[in-house]
Amino acid sequence: MGILSWILLGLIAGALAKFIMPGKDPGGCLITILIGIAGGVIGGFLGTFIGLGKIQSFDLGGILIATAGAILLLIVYRFVRK
User: Fold this and answer.
1) What is the mean pLDDT of each run of 10 residues along the chain (82 residues)?
2) DSSP secondary structure string, the chain?
3) Which residue among 9, 67, 74, 79 is least packed, with the fewest CB closer than 10 Å?
4) How many CA atoms lie less than 13 Å away from 6 in the CB half-sphere?
């Protein structure tokens, strides 16, 4: 996937993670995108590790794996922040 696809996937995954886990987090759209991109990388790594597959394309499976990674990253971020 190209960098624009990663940014778009990160935006969607970060927005879904914030929708699922609302709360007061610092940062705005940029932090949401960064959490989504990092969550996509983490979700892709963990998904490959446990056998769910890779994030190779912009599809529903990739969005779900990236969103799960973004939620995991958001939980860790909130835990470390406190």
Assistant:
1) 69 82 69 76 76 66 80 82 74
2) --HHHHHHHHHHHHHHHHHHS----S--HHHHHHHHHHHHHHHHHHHHHHTS----SSSHHHHHHHHHHHHHHHHHHHHHH-
3) 79
4) 13
Place of tokens 């394309």: 57
Contacts 24+ apart (CB under 8 A), 47-54: none
Distance separating alpha carbons of residues 60 and 20, to the nearest angstrom: 17
Other Cβ atoms less than 10 A from the Cβ of 13: the count is 31
